[in-house]
Amino acid sequence: MLMPIEQTGGRGDQTIREVKTLVDRASALGASLARLPAVAAPDLCRRAADALARVVDDGDAVVALARVDGAGRIARLESIGVASRAGAQRAAERGSDLRLGVESLAGLEPSPERAEARGDGVTHCAAASLGEHERVWRMRGRGALTAGVGVLPRGPADRRVLVYLAAGAEPADARSHALLVATATRLITGVLADALRGSGEVIEWLTPREQEVLDMLILGRTVKEISEELHRSQHTIHDHVKSLHRKLDAKTRGELIARTLGYRSN
């Protein structure tokens, strides 16, 4: 007689726990990413990496936006974001190390050899068989690496989203780890696609000051209130607002805020 899976014990119980952990982590990641601005914020990749690093134990995450050449190799990195779950000092050291690791991948194919191409434009691969990518991380003392590559649905066809998740030790379940990165790659690619919609060859990233002004506009502050809080003239704040309208292709204040929150009028 077949027993209900919850009564079988052993592998059945372990599988249930692994699936629940994966679902919980994916849900937490989705909730964190949903709070990111739908604009080309200067720290967008770092914030996406931080959201991913937070859902794993002792995890280091990298999110990068890259251009690939005609041979499919990484030609140029447009933005890199790194995050670590280590303590403050170690996190800073790891962050610098991870950034160097990603920069050293220039000239390599972003999708490692045994990668699986998916119909939704996302490519991911398990921690095994990452070739040169894995060698770079092993040299930096990380136990396991899983990578994902996303293709933005709009903009230049040679632009890729690279997602790397490095664990401090070999994960207990490499398959769940790979599935988490595949899910993260899909979600993060969607976030970047919304933020960079309409971006051509050159991305017009918001400046830190423009991001600050935009955050205040979302809170309902007037230009006068923003100028007083930032100790800048109203003329300067107006210039920032005009730049925001241009970069976000918004005609009204309402449309500007709507686009920031991820809504589109078209």
Shape: globular
Biggest sheet record: 6 strands, antiparallel
Strand content: 15-25%
How are the strands of the largest sheet arranged? 2-1-6-5-4-3
Radius of gyration, rounded?
Answer: 21 Å
The percent of residues in helical segments reads: 40-55%
Q: Span between N and C termini?
A: 57 Å
CATH class call of the largest domain: Alpha Beta
Individual helix count:
10
* Structure classification: alpha+beta
How many strands?
6
Number of domains: 2
Overall CATH architecture of the largest domain? 2-Layer Sandwich
CATH-derived topology of the largest domain: Beta-Lactamase
Which consecutive residue ranges, at least 5 long each, have pLDDT under 50? Answer: 1-8, 112-119, 124-130
Walk me through what this model shows.
This protein is α+β, with helices and mostly antiparallel strands and 266 residues long. It has two domains: 175 residues, Beta-Lactamase, CATH 3.30.450; 53 residues, Arc Repressor Mutant, subunit A. Helix content is 47%, strand content 17%. It has ten helices and six strands. Strands 2-1-6-5-4-3 form a six-stranded antiparallel sheet, sandwiched between helices. Helix 2 packs parallel to helix 6, helix 7 crosses helix 9 and helix 8 packs across helix 9. It is globular, with a radius of gyration of 21 Å. The N terminus is likely disordered.
